[in-house]
């Protein structure tokens, strides 16, 4: 099949979160299944053109906009597996300090127009390189207008008559909202701005367009596909999702074992496998040294790598720091986010320098070292569509302690000391008390030297590779193509 991935970010070129990980890894897994897969994304300032050896393919591709044609350039690079990656260069839109936000962490006010231009550019690039995708796979609000354009203004375009669309929701909380007056600048019919169209409680929602017009919808875990159909987790779009329930599928993300493999990871102090994980002790000592903690092999080392935000439940961690620090343990934290939480963790690290170490920011090599060196990994997320860090942790024999929501519930099973089944620890109520109790259970088992190796083995043998996910997507792509099969969805106010 000919498959085009349209995403606003992708590893290793530019990324801010899980979307970028997916866009950089899933195409490689689909290619291994024999499909012709290509990826397209904007050329941001952050993309290192020379390092990634990007070449200009075509200059001056005309993209229609409300203010007249805009010229974009097309550059091409490759993923490590050789998959073509197209970059749309339009400096007024994408040559900025951040992908979606300014340095002051404010959304760019013209985000709707920027990514509308990108969506139209994606379609013009297909013509420019003579690539007619059988499946156009769009991701999150930044590319949600692709199925809208194909089902409205470009509905009769013969070039895309055989193109089915699949739209993946990575996080329903980010919707690409815009005020009503912006709609004409997106080159969309005015009649789309209704509650049955893109209007969402007075604003427009780019993401809603993808939900309404894509042939099939996916999200990043089975549990999350159920949660977003509820008022609690639906962010005002649960009704739309329930209406499209038969077209909505949860496909768990995977991890790239080329990048996350303790047997070959170039970032860690020692390599190890499930058959011999002695090297993990060396990784632990190395991590303790890096964070200037006492090097103690027997002290449990807990870790957090996260955006510091309420969604991630990091306020729960803040609230239990005092009782945690009273225990015989160490904790390392890597992340950034809400200033209040950054300050709280920094102050706590200064108060407990021999037990708590904090680094504000993000560091890819260090994140690998943390996954390899820690004993336990904490993910108290209030909601987590999929989550990747718990899968990285499993691969490295670092045992997750998670709130049972979304993809965390789908991937982490409570360890049972009687049966020896399970790969981590879960708590269901998003409270500090429940979180602390789950950590206590994990620490108690850590002291059971006969059981702890079994738990590590369970973790490291869990299969959460992209190859498994790719096979599921392959089936859905075929389903989308069959559904497309000559049918076309008119905008009918439903």
Briefly characterize the structure.
With 494 residues, the protein is α/β, with parallel strands linked by helices.
> Number of domains in the coordinates?
2
Mean pLDDT across all amino acids: 95
Alpha-beta classification: alpha/beta
- The helix count comes to 17
**Major beta-sheet overview:** 9 strands, mixed
Task: Trace the largest sheet across and list its strands.
Answer: 3-4-5-2-1-6-7-11-12
- The CATH topology assignment of the largest domain is Rossmann fold
Give the beta-strand count.
18
CATH class of the largest domain: Alpha Beta
Could you describe the 3D structure shown?
With 494 residues, the chain is of the alpha/beta class. The protein has 2 domains: 2-254 and 467-484, Rossmann fold, CATH 3.40.50; 279-463, 3-Layer(aba) Sandwich (Rossmann fold). 34% of the residues lie in helices and 19% in strands. The protein is built from 17 helices and 18 strands. Strands 3-4-5-2-1-6-7-11-12 form a 9-stranded mixed beta sheet, with helices on both faces. Strand 6 (135-139), helix 4 (145-151) and strand 7 (164-169) form a beta-alpha-beta unit. It is globular, with a radius of gyration of 23 Å. The model is unreliable at 488-494 (pLDDT under 50).
List the helices and strands and how they pair.
Elements: E1 2-6, H1 18-32, E2 36-42, E3 55-63, E4 70-78, E5 84-89, H2 91-94, H3 111-128, E6 135-139, H4 145-151, E7 164-169, E8 177-178, E9 199-200, E10 203-205, H5 206-213, E11 216-219, H6 222-227, H7 238-243, E12 248-250, H8 279-290, E13 301-308, H9 314-319, H10 321-325, E14 330-337, H11 339-351, E15 356-360, H12 364-373, E16 376-379, H13 389-395, E17 399-403, H14 406-411, E18 425-427, H15 432-446, H16 452-460, H17 466-484
Parallel strand pairs: 1-2, 1-6, 2-5, 6-7, 7-11, 11-12, 13-14, 13-16, 14-15, 16-17, 17-18
Antiparallel strand pairs: 3-4, 4-5, 8-10, 9-10
């Amino acid at each position: 099949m000919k498959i085009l991935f349209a995403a606003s970010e992708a590893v290793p070129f530019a990324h801010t979160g899980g979307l970028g990980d997916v866009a950089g890894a899933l195409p490689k897994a689909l290619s291994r299944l024999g499909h012709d897969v290509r990826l397209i994304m904007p050329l941001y300032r952050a993309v290192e053109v020379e390092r990634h050896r990007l070449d200009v393919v075509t200059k001056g591709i005309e993209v229609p906009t409300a203010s007249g044609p805009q010229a974009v350039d097309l550059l091409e690079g490759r993923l490590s597996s050789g998959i073509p990656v197209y970059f749309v260069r339009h400096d007024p839109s994408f040559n900025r300090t951040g992908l979606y936000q300014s340095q002051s962490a404010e959304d760019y006010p013209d985000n709707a127009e920027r990514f509308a231009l990108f969506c139209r550019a994606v379609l013009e690039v297909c013509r420019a390189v003579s690539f007619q995708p059988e499946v156009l796979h769009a991701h999150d609000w930044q590319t949600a207008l692709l199925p809208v354009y194909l089902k409205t203004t470009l509905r009769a375009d013969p070039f895309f008559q055989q193109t089915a669309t699949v739209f993946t929701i990575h996080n329903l909380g980010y919707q690409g909202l815009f005020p009503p007056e912006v709609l004409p600048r997106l080159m969309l019919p005015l009649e789309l701005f209704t509650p049955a169209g893109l209007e969402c409680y007075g604003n427009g929602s780019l993401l809603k367009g993808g939900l309404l017009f894509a042939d099939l919808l996916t999200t990043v875990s089975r549990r999350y596909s159920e949660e977003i159909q509820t008022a609690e987790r639906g962010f005002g779009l649960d009704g739309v999702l329930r209406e499209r329930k038969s077209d909505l599928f949860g496909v768990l993300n995977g991890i790239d074992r080329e990048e996350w493999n303790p047997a070959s990871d170039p970032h860690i102090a020692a390599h190890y496998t499930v058959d011999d994980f002695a090297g993990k002790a060396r990784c632990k000592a190395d991590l303790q040294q890096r964070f200037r903690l006492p090097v103690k092999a027997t002290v449990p080392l807990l870790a957090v790598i996260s955006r510091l935000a309420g969604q991630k439940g990091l306020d729960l961690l803040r609230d239990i720091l005092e009782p945690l620090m009273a225990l015989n343990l160490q904790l390392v934290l890597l992340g950034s986010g809400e200033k209040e939480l950054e300050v709280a963790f920094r102050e706590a690290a200064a108060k407990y320098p021999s037990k708590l170490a904090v680094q504000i920011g993000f560091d890819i090599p260090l994140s690998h070292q943390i996954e390899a060196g820690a004993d336990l990994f904490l993910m108290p997320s209030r909601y987590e569509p999929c989550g990747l860090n718990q899968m990285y942790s499993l691969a490295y024999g670092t045992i997750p302690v998670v709130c049972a929501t979304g993809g965390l519930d789908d991937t982490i099973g409570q360890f049972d000391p009687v049966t020896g089944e399970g790969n981590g620890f879960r708590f269901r109520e998003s409270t500090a008390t429940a979180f602390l109790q789950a950590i206590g259970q994990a620490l108690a088992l850590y002291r059971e030297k006969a059981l702890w190796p079994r738990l590590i083995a369970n973790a490291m043998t869990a299969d959460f590779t992209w190859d498994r996910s790719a096979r599921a997507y392959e089936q859905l792509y075929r389903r989308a193509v069959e559904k497309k099969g000559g049918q076309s969805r008119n905008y009918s106010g439903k």
